[in-house]
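Quick one from the shared queue. A colleague (R.T.) flagged Ciliary-associated calcium-binding coiled-coil protein 1-like isoform X2 as missing a structural entry in our internal table.

Convert sequence to structure tokens.
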Amino acid sequence: MADAKKSRSAIRTKSSERKKSANKADRGKGGNPQEEEVKESLAYKVISEDQTNALKELTPRELEAKLAEILNLTNYHISLPEACVLDYYVAGFWFTKEENFNNQQTSAFFTLLKILVENIKDKHMSLAESLVEFKRLLVGIGMENCPKSGGLECFDISQAKVITNYFTDSLFQHFKLYEFLFTQEPSEEVITTEVKVEVPPMADIPFPPPLDEGMTEDLWREYIMTPPTTPEPETNDEAGENEEVSKEKGKTDEIAKDILTTIKPEHIKTIIRKTADGIFENFKIEVETKLKERENNYAAKITKR
């Protein structure tokens, strides 16, 4: 009886050892694909090392266009969900530049960014499920030879805290907004507005046109400048008055001519003599007074001698 019990226990131990060895072989051959997938690094899955180097040298505007090309976001100019996703990717990549992540860390962070966004967009995960997934991806940071790793082992513990704070502030805090964005279809509204724009003419080299409305002087004089006022026509009353004045003037001229024809030459001589005597009489008196003064002066000088 004792020998039989020993043989049975030996058989059981051998069978258990065989099962263990079979399980190890299955694990080595890929028997648990989930563990292998977890152990794989997240770096260079979405953007390669060359792309990471090239993206770091771009400006925000250029980075937006390049990421749209890499991620095949062709309608971000007119689609609100694509525009929000692209904006979030650009902000996340710029965050890696500010934190001075190396190429491997930048690529791994970008993959993590894309996974969390697609969990909301495609898999429609809740906030609790997204937090569990994020926690699973952080496993293995700061640990050596960890059997289960989320693929972010290129980061240290301090960087993990920074990453956690970033996703908390940018994604999880506004989770309902992103959930609403990816689940509700926005109503399309087409608004057209006609705007007439007048372009000024090109400048004439070497001198530009006048500053008044940016047009040439000829056009300004022809179409804009206020024309001079036209003279008002003369009324009939003024014309009648002018005719009367001219008639009276003609009459006086005729009367003067008649008077000159009636005067005799003797009368003219007497008139001229009288006018000359009236004019020269004052001059004569003045001359006589001066002569008397001189005579008195000479007489005074003689008496002194």
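Residues 265-304 form the longest helix (40 residues).
The chain is about 65% helix and 0% strand.
Added to the table.
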